[in-house]
Amino acid sequence: MRKGCSKFFYEDERQFERWDHTTLTSFKAEFKRFKDVVVLLLMHPWERDARLLKKALKKSPQQYNVIVEIVCTRSSDQLLGVRKAYHSLFDQSIEEDLASHINGSERKVSYHHTSILNSDKI
């Protein structure tokens, strides 16, 4: 067996050392996540945030924390840039998408976030 890596390989009936299938699948998933992170880091911050907002709205309730984080941690100038990028990328406003995708008790929080996005400071 390969020294120090025996948990990644197994020996088949022909005494060939091959990758363990679950390990290979796991590595592929990790490299895809790494690639996604690198792509996000190379994007302009406004475009990155706009794409993350759109993705969060598509996945709804499980990803609302992304929306909250972006709205609460960005300056008003950054939020204005995110609004411009979102409109440019998706031909819709963030406010319209928030209103159309969020229902129930989350709508109250959404209203507050929309008011932040529309505030005069931006």
From TrEMBL:
Keywords, sorted A to Z: Annexin, Repeat
InterPro entries for the chain: Annexin_repeat, Annexin_sf
Top-rank taxon: Eukaryota
Pfam families linked to this entry: Annexin
Repeat recorded as keyword: yes
Gene3D superfamilies tied to this protein: Annexin (1.10.220.10)
Name the UniProt record assigns to this protein: Annexin
Upper taxonomic lineage: Eukaryota, Viridiplantae, Streptophyta, Embryophyta, Tracheophyta
